[in-house]
Specification:
about 140 residues; 2,3-Dihydroxybiphenyl 1,2-Dioxygenase, domain 1; 4-stranded mixed beta sheet
Amino acid sequence: MIWAHDVERHLAFYRDLLGLEDITPAGMPNRFLVAARTDDGVPEMIVLVPHPEPQAVFPSQKAQRTLHHLAFSVDPGAFDDLLGRLGRAGLEVRSGVHPVLKSVRTAYVDDPDGNEVELIAPLAEGAGGESPAPG
């Protein structure tokens, strides 16, 4: 569950930019987004919940936040396109080397409330370990 000060801005990020499917029944204030499909039919999800105090200030210091970051697996063939799409949307895309998974590419971006979202893709054959800057 993610508190959202502006649910529509979060939908534009998670649904429209990251491509998560919105499976919310009509009329519900919370939004249910599929992060991954599973073999048992119960999807992995994030739920966007309207913040009870929409004017409340989100802590600017990450150490004061209860959520450090989310991580999503990305198809290696879609990774560069996704980074480019995020960059063209005006978001700061940060790259790096994953501290535990050595055969992956990683990138980081913040959602509309400043929650860090990590994107992880297996390395393509012959690729290096650090993610390129978005195009």
